[in-house]
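In these records, each integer encodes one residue's backbone shape. Here is one protein:

___
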Amino acid sequence: AELVQILVTAYTGFAAAVAETERLWPGTPTEVRTGNWGCGAFGGNRHVMTILQLAAARLAGAERVRFYAFDEAGHTIFEEARAVAPGDDVIETVLARRYRWGFGDGT
């Protein structure tokens, strides 16, 4: 349920960005800018958050994603997440990989 909630939250924001871009600048490709939501204070898993956000951007119809990874490990995680096929059931994919949440860093 938590994974679905994260996916829906990301999709909702990204879909709003796509709709507003089309309303204000018809025909202009939408670029969403994002990063590791909840992976500091809340101890979220960087792999999970990246996979879910990329899937949400695809579902919302965003043409471009600018993902702020901040370090080499983040870039590697981004490339791994990008490899998840668009047709895959993203929730099942994440569950099958048995990711674990981390611990908040107090920020």
